[in-house]
Amino acid sequence: MKKNLLINIGILSLGLFSLASCNDVLDEQPRSIYDPSFFKTQSGVEGGITALYAHLRDTYGNAYYYNICETGTDEYTWAQSADGNFKDADLSGVGSLNASTSRSDALWGNAFTYINTASGTIENGEAAGISESLLSEARFFRAFDYFRLVQTFGGVPLDLGAGELKFNSNATRVSKRNTVPEVYTKAIFPDLTKAIASLPEKPRISGGVTKDVARLVLAQAYLTYGWWLENPNGIPTYPECERKDPDGLSAQQYFQKAYDLAVEGINNPGPYKLMDTYYDVNLAQNDRNAECMLWADHTEKSEEYNGGSLTYGSGGAPDNFASWMVCWNYPNMLAKTTDGKVFNPVRRECVQALGRPWTRMAPPQEVFTHTFANKTQDSRYDGTFTTCFRANWNKDSQYNGKEALNANDMKIKPGDAVLTFLNDNNSSIDYSKNADGVGGGTLPGRSDYVVDPAGISRFMYPILWKIGPYRTDNGNGLGQPNAGSTRPFVALKFSEFYFVAAEAAVKLGKNDDARKMINVIRARAGKWRYSNAENKEKVADYSKEMVAATPATITIDYLLDELGREYFGEGHRWFDLVRTQKWAERAGTYTIAGTGNNDHTGKVYKRTIPKEYYLRPIPQGQLDALDMTTEEKQAYQNPAYRQ
Question: Least enclosed by CB within 10 Å: which of 28, 126, 380, 502?
Answer without folding.
Answer: 126
